[in-house]
Amino acid sequence: MPSRNTKIAPIDLNTPSSYIFVRKYSEKSYWTLRINLPDKRQVVRSLKIPYEPEDRKSENEAYNKGNELAESIRRRFDDGLPSDEPSLMYFAIKFQEHANEKYWANQELINADKEPVYKKSKDIDGGKGLWNRGGLNTINAAMDNSIRPFFSRPSFIKKPIHKINTRDIAEFKNWREEESAKRDQPYAPATINRQNTVLRSIFRFSQHEGERFIPPTIQNQPQELRKRRRPEFSKSEYTQLLDYVRGRYADVKTSKQKYAYLYYCYLETLEHTGIRPFQNINNAIRIKDIQEKKNANGVMLLLKRDEKNHIYTATASQYWIHTLTRLKRFYESVGITDDREYLLVHPETINNRGINKGEPISSFASQWKTAKKALGWSGKGFTHYSIRHRYAGKRLMNKDVNPLDLANVMGTSLAMISEIYQHYQVEQHYDELVASDIDYRDYVDVYENGIRERGVKKDSDEHKEIWENTPDKLEVPPTDYLEE
After folding, report:
1. DSSP of 131-164, one letter per residue?
2. CA 422, CA 438: separation in Å to the nearest integer?
């Protein structure tokens, strides 16, 4: 056990009731700080400076370090803070727990049909928006992929957060670039910037908790939106995708055919709403978020979304009514009622895959992977976002919305619209872009056992004949029958 060397007189420091003394260990002696605080509290800290007899240099070093540490401890005590100086990881974990707590508090309010009240701006100076699932996912991903692996290293695990400097941030940046290069898909600038945002939030959170310091500057990477613009579908390529998926579901009897049919409806949903492709249950479309309203032009379809830490309302084209009707009839045919929570749910239970009938479909990644391989697109860089581009191109070409409003209804930035979507070749693709809306007015679906079989020209002789003989196969009657 270490013991005080009583043969060496203690040295008083500038901070009241503080001094340094020599403590003996088994083989060596070290300078040590002791400070007496109110309420009979004491703090004893090794300065990690070896004691050397007659060595004035080490004594002066211990004196200066002791003064600095004693002043810091006393200041922290007066501010109601612990004497220990917490590390960045201490605040990172505490911030993560705080975000999770606020998210669930907001969820309880939302589930009770109340307005969420917990905002980041109340907890972090400069924070924006609500504590929601998107924000929590961003924090968790940044913690798991970069912040925890780097700042848990020996050189940082005990380093006080107020001592993290610009040199440390540069080291973090270089380490992250090396780690990114090892990944199958390196971090996009937007991902790196989200990680930076979380790191800045941790610094601000520590200040909110009482720490007094100026955090180092953390620079974001330029987005380089034009270079990152995803490939666009040509008319023939997009038609090729739809024809392939339509061919996959054929009679919709087998399990694969059922999922192919749902995938086709998913593709239509992306094209006619412009939403981001969802990749997990958290962003799956909920029935309650779909609103159908009447307006002067017929039907107005709205879809509330919470994507990438941003809540917005997407405006769907009128054609999407067909998709919703197809899904309604399909699920009725497999015994799933229209009061389901999610728009796209599993039509059956598959025990060996942990899939239960009626539960939400988290993504269509496997169907997309299969389609790309079958169509020879594996190296072309196509993603489901290419369909989102089509929606933007259509809206811009129709000139029914200005770029700022389009950015709002798509939940993106004006810069993104300007740098990416306005480069879409809408002039060359005008006919195909607006064709689906023309179909909405001029064609009606014909169903067989709850599955869309084909489309027929509205008010044609064929339309009238089917209505007269088997009206249950149609979603709407001919106009003459409506008037009667």
Report:
1. --HHHHHHHHHHIIIIIHHHHTSHHHHSSBGGG-
2. 23
